[in-house]
Amino acid sequence: MLDPEKAQAASRLLVGHWDDGTHLDAIPEALRPKTRTEGYAIQAHVMDRSAAPLFGWKIAATSVAGQRHINVDGPMAGRLLAEKAVGVGGTVSLDTSKMRVAEIEFAFRFGSQLPPRPAPYEIAEVMDAVATLHPAIEIPDSRYDDFCAVGAPQLIADNACANLFVIGEPVAEDWRGVNLAEHKVTGFVSGKSRHEGTGAAVLGDPRIALTWLVNELSGLGIAAQPGQVVITGTCVTPIRVEAGDEVIGDLGKFGRVSVRFV
């Protein structure tokens, strides 16, 4: 197991690159996580610099294609920091962005706690703890020069590529009886392109993805807390963006969100 002081040092190194807008090849060997658990131990220290409570969680690599693209064998959890939230219609700079993509997602806000336990949570239990559904856009990024080459433990250490995100208004429609796997999701780049998908892109169903996240946290001894938001993974192929683009995420009757890039 990675020494706690080394885990903290690895996190400081990564956060320093985020602060400076710079990149690195990999975490130095002496500090490098060898397992997912060690990666999460490093990731946890991202909260050392955050003045606000944890906003919530993201899930990365929720499709087989996405996993193959970045050479990992399963999903990964990352922390959403309150200071990284962007208002609907807000503006994002691409100056230091490596990935330069936007993702259209379902987001869930918890209304009650789901504490760690030995038995896995079932989908129905997790959904009972959800208060609201929201449309969302994620703008992930990485501090690695080649994020496809470093492997899951280092990606997890770098907060599973969590960066900026936009959370829309809570869905007013009755959504609980809707088959979210079949629900159509569309991303638009204003005047340029249209990108379509469904909730099935997210581990087969966003509710399955949310349940995976709760059980991943449970295995780490972490409770999902009331008020925390989970963005569950992109429903469309990640949308390449450049300065001047406006991206709109359209979840039909579940609402829209947008963000501009400069």
* Total individual domains: 1
Q: Spell out the helices and strands N to C.
A: HHEHEEEEHEHEEEHEEEE
The CATH homologous superfamily = Fumarylacetoacetase-like, C-terminal domain
Helix segment count?
6
**Main structural class:** alpha+beta
Helix fraction by DSSP (H/I, runs of at least 4): 10-25%
Q: Residue-averaged pLDDT, rounded?
A: 97
Percent strand: 25-35%
Which stretches are low in confidence, meaning pLDDT under 50 for 5 or more residues running? none
State the CATH architecture. Alpha-Beta Complex
**Distance N terminus to C terminus?**
42 Å
Major beta sheet, specifics? 8 strands, mixed
Question: What is the class in the CATH system?
Answer: Alpha Beta
Q: What name does the CATH topology carry?
A: Fumarylacetoacetate hydrolase, domain 2
Rg (C-alpha, Å): 17 Å
> Which word captures the global form?
globular
Give me the count of strands: 13
